[in-house]
């Protein structure tokens, strides 16, 4: 990588890790809020604080995280990536500071909505910056994904450790500090946001510099993108999001019933003095739940997947990468339950492969978006992409919950295999279209 590439990748790695650190720390606070608050005071009426109530609160923040990616993508093309990444980091810091000061569930809701709005602009901004500014694009996507996985794996762990020593309000306030520091760094970072586009001569894009200026232009550019291969790419990322949320949302719950993951009394793992200091004496009921660490480890293995996937995007056609990744994910869904009941070693091996391939596919579809869209509306295209991944894809959790409530885990994993099979089929369609374009180009020459 050259100096400009390194400067861009350093910023996006930092910001991407932060986004997912905060995203995955929120559920840890939910269990505390269930005991901390009794009612939601709405003025004219009051609602009891239940899991359903807090579920709606958290869903509002996560929903905005996905939906806001589209307007975020439009803003990227108008004001630039570096500025938006800085605003994202400062906004996330402010949201967790507000969270730490929250006296009620209403204020918690406002804090999570602020987090969702701030975080939503990151993916279109960061990915557009890599696609237009980094010449070694695939490697840039790989490092970017690795940083996200580090945040996914270490964010919840860091939050849990801090909660051993401090009240949740102070922990939330402490978590606001890293994003504040990162935001300050973003305002000082120096690089050329369009170096890769300039090196390619602009790619012949009609809007290489300006983005969209009006609603009519937004509709026109959106129609232009979806009239081409991007329509299929959008369906691909939807399948990826549905599989991702569907398999991860309830995975810890599914693993709880496996004998391999019986809870371990925490007092048996700590020296007597430490256990007394932490208030976890024998018989206290506090246990270590192995399935949570399996879950975290599975996400951490995604670092390898991101790196491998990013490297492969520079070496094989991205369409074939999508086909292969979805084919493996479909197979893993089919064999998951039999392997999970076969013992610890097979389950660990399966978890490692699943964690890897959940994230191998991401650099492939990110690079595919860059190949199937014009550079001038790259932010808009990634806005649509993450609307599909986080917005539509979030329905994977609802699908999984509904199936587990009214049917069986076997039906859930067959459904997930179906999502992956559809994604593989769409990838094959893109392979065929790529071949058709290549033949047309050869004929024209």
Automatic annotation (TrEMBL):
Transmembrane annotation, as ranges: 7-34, 54-76, 83-102, 108-129, 141-162, 168-186, 225-244, 293-310, 317-337, 343-361, 382-404, 410-431
PROSITE patterns recorded: MFS
GO molecular function terms noted in the UniProt entry: transmembrane transporter activity
Residue ranges annotated for the Major facilitator superfamily (MFS) profile domain, each copy included: 9-435
Keyword annotations from UniProtKB, A to Z: Membrane, Transmembrane, Transmembrane helix
InterPro entries: MFS, MFS_dom, MFS_trans_sf
Keyword RNA-binding: no
Record-given protein name: MFS transporter
């Amino acid at each position: 990588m050259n100096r400009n590439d390194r400067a861009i990748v350093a910023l996006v790695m930092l910001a991407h890790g932060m986004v997912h650190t905060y995203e995955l720390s929120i559920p840890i606070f939910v269990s505390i809020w269930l005991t901390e608050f009794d009612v939601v005071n709405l003025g004219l009426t009051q609602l009891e604080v239940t899991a359903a109530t807090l579920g709606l609160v958290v869903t509002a923040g996560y929903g905005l995280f996905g939906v806001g990616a589209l307007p975020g993508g439009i803003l990227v093309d108008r004001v630039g990536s570096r500025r938006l990444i800085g605003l994202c980091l400062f906004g996330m810091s402010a949201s967790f500071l507000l969270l730490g000061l929250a006296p009620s569930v209403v204020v918690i809701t406002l804090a999570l909505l602020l987090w969702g709005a701030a975080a939503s602009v990151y993916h279109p901004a960061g990915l557009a910056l890599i696609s237009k500014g980094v010449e070694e694009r695939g490697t840039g996507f790989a490092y970017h994904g690795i940083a996200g996985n580090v945040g996914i794996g270490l964010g919840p762990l860091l939050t849990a450790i801090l909660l051993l020593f401090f009240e949740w309000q102070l922990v939330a306030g402490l978590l606001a500090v890293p994003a504040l520091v990162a935001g300050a760094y973003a305002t000082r970072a120096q690089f050329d946001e369009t170096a890769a586009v300039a090196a390619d001569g602009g790619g012949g894009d009609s809007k290489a510099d300006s983005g969209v200026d009006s609603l009519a232009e937004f509709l026109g550019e959106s129609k232009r993108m979806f009239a081409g291969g991007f329509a299929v790419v959008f369906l691909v990322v939807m399948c990826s999001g549905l599989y991702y949320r569907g398999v991860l949302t309830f995975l810890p719950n599914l693993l709880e019933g496996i004998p391999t993951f019986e809870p371990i009394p925490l007092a048996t793992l700590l020296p007597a003095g430490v256990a007394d200091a932490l208030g976890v004496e024998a018989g206290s009921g506090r246990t270590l739940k192995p399935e949570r660490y399996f879950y975290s480890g599975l996400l951490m293995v995604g670092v390898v997947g991101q790196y491998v996937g990013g490297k492969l995007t520079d070496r094989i056609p991205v369409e074939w990468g999508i086909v292969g990744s979805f084919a493996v994910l479909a197979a893993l869904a089919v064999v998951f339950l039999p392997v999970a009941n076969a013992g610890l070693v097979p389950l660990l091996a399966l978890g490692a492969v699943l964690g890897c391939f959940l994230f191998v596919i991401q650099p492939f579809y990110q690079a595919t978006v860059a190949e199937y869209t014009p550079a001038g509306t790259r932010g808009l295209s990634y806005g649509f992409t993450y609307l599909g991944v986080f917005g539509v894809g979030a329905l994977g959790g609802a699908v999984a919950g509904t199936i587990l409530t009214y049917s069986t885990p076997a039906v859930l994993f067959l459904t997930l295999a179906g999502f992956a099979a559809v994604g593989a089929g769409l990838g094959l369609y893109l392979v065929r279209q790529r071949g058709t374009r290549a033949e047309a180009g050869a004929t024209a020459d």
